[in-house]
């Protein structure tokens, strides 16, 4: 069972697609958002949730006070489930789901201004993450002091961070590693 850990929708359960996604475990989400809350980057933030799946990461951010979440998911069934989850937990007014590939979404102009927090949880065997990270540092996508978090299998190794993103540590939980990077400048 997947559920929101904390915030306005804390304890509410989420449906997950029967196949094709790997929802972030509750333990990892709790640790991730504990760090992000400590850094002060969630409340009032514009959040981009790439490879959203069921929406667990983006919905957790919205539950904890993010002003807006854009959840990008290529699989149409998973995107529909993400929309349904947002409505079911009462966060649909702050969560917009875009059914497209991350690369395609980042190929356009950033809608609504830069993002303060990016959560990228691609399938562990997916290629192309380097190109996605490179697109994020193009003008307009990231606010000064933005935080980017990439979730990968520990065996995958650190992502290749493009110029404009400075590595800011990692944390491993079982087979899952969270990699952190930040942009230059003062946070929101």
Polypeptide structure, described:
This is 16S rRNA (Guanine(966)-N(2))-methyltransferase RsmD. It comes from Occultella glacieicola. It holds the Pfam family Cons_hypoth95. Residues 1-22 are annotated as: Disordered. The protein contains five helices and nine strands, in the order ββαβαβαβαβαβββ. The protein has 188 residues and is of the alpha/beta class. It has one domain (2-16, 25-182): Vaccinia Virus protein VP39 (Rossmann fold, 3-Layer(aba) Sandwich). The termini are far apart.
Which regions contain 5 or more consecutive residues with pLDDT less than 50?
none
Mean pLDDT: 91
Q: Determine and state the CATH class.
A: Alpha Beta
Strand order, sheet with most strands: 5-4-3-6-7-9-8
Enzyme class: transferase
EC number: 2.1.1.171
Keywords: Methyltransferase, Transferase
Organism: Occultella glacieicola
Question: SSE layout and pairings?
Answer:
Blueprint: E1 2-3, E2 13-14, H1 26-39, E3 46-50, H2 56-63, E4 68-72, H3 76-88, E5 95-98, H4 102-106, E6 115-120, H5 129-136, E7 142-153, E8 166-173, E9 176-182
Parallel strand pairs: 3-4, 3-6, 4-5, 6-7
Antiparallel strand pairs: 1-2, 7-9, 8-9
Gist of the model:
By secondary structure, this protein is α/β, with parallel strands linked by helices. It has helices at 26-39, 56-63, 76-88, 102-106, 129-136; strands spanning 2-3, 13-14, 46-50, 68-72, 95-98, 115-120, 142-153, 166-173, 176-182. One of its GO terms (molecular function) is 16S rRNA (guanine(966)-N(2))-methyltransferase activity.
């Amino acid at each position: 069972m997947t559920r929101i850990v904390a915030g306005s929708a804390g304890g509410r359960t989420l449906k997950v697609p029967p196949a094709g996604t790997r929802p972030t475990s509750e333990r990892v989400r709790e640790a991730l958002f504990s760090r992000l809350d400590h850094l002060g980057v969630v409340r009032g933030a514009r959040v981009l949730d790439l490879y959203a799946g069921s929406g667990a990461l983006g919905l957790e951010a919205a539950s904890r006070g993010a002003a807006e979440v854009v959840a990008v998911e290529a699989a149409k069934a998973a995107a529909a489930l993400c929309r349904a989850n947002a409505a079911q937990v009462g966060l649909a007014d702050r969560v917009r789901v875009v059914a497209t590939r991350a690369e395609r979404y980042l190929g356009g102009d950033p809608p609504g201004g830069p993002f303060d927090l990016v959560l990228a949880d691609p399938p562990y065997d997916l290629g192309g993450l380097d190109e996605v990270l490179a697109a994020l540092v193009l003008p307009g996508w990231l606010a000064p002091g933005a935080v980017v978090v990439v979730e990968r299998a520990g065996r995958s190794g650190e992502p290749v961070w493009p110029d404009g993103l400075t590595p800011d540590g990692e944390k491993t939980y079982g087979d899952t590693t969270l990699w952190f990077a930040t942009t230059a400048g003062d946070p929101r």
